[in-house]
Design goal:
two-stranded antiparallel ribbon; Letm1 RBD domain-containing protein; alpha+beta; single chain
Length: 429
Amino acid sequence: MFLRRFSTNGSVWNAYSPIFKEDENLKDLRTSKFEYKSLYQPLKIDSFTSEIENSSEKVDYYSHCLREEMKHYGNSEFQDEDRLNNTSSLPELRMIKTKNQAFETYLIENPNVDPKSTVTKMKQYVKFAVMFMKFFKLGVMNVWKNYRLNRKEFYGSYYMVDPKNENAKLKVKNLNSVIDELHTVINCERNVRNASEQRRVLNKGGTQDLFPKIELSRSTLQRVLRTRADFIKLPLFAVLFLLLEELTIGLCYIFPEIVPSTCELPQLNHRFFYQQSKSQKELLELRQNAPKSELFKKTPYNISCKELFVLSSVLKTKSSLIPTVLYPESYLRQALLRKLKSLNVDNYLIVRDGGVWKMTNLEILRSCIDRGLVDFSKELNPNNDPQSEEQKSHYELIDFSTLRFRLHSFICEMNRSNNHASVGLLGMY
């Protein structure tokens, strides 16, 4: 649905989306003139059209988006801002060390102590426990800070315009509506740019075709999406953390569902991702020997019920506390479609804001988990070599190069696919 947006002189422009960002200097919301900074800015495609028509080879859509975005932000206010990664919404795995590493660190910081004394051993264990407490504390604080930042910068700044009343503004409260609008804009832009005959018709009469450019960064969108899920778990977990302190580790093992993602200990991944690991094995059996052409045809509304149930568990579109059989089939299919839309938007923003190769290791890991591109039973639970003298931490054992290449391949395959509603590649590693 095409809605409207306000220009700086008060006139109305046609646009693909109703999402706007309010200018900080705007005080009187009832004024006749508005200073709006839209999430979508007009983008001329004349240069793109000439590039296509003058080239014998097809220009890759994502490569063009990346080049145009780098030109746009090359000398802008965003050049020093990381628009791709948002580490504050991820668990800081680099803080977690092995017991041997923690003990050696203590001895390096205190070279005069006797390493074999009982007092030294006790202090080493205390330092090891404090490391976990700092990890939990940082995770809780990050969720709270991100929540406040989202209310100020996202929900407090972006608005939707009522198409029936040009002077009315509706504050964005439903994040799903934002994802729907972004997904619609990206698909419209992709379809028109890939239809060369339609582009020639649009530009033959001298009319200027405008595409709305998405201003919202991937970093901001991921912060909002992750914090929305973590903030629900924050009150209970924070209270229990204050009461139990170092015993919180046992709580995480018994009730992994109440732990925010920023506080997920890598040593307990076999508990956090137990259901996903089990469902992924079933999914691979269902899709065994299936050709890629058949996988691309799978959508949220034509896959079997059994495949729907296991894929919903792999992508965590439902709660693990409630049995799958209690969920209506229609709800699971709609939830899977919403998840697919958010992943398609994320694929677009990843390429536009710098590409897979500029993502941090933690972002690569989380992006692969969200798409089911990791082996939950092995790659998230790497073991130290018992013959090795140097024990490595969980973060050091993860093969991020493989995950990075896997995410890059997934985005390329989804881009080449003509069916952008396909869920056949999700959950496959």
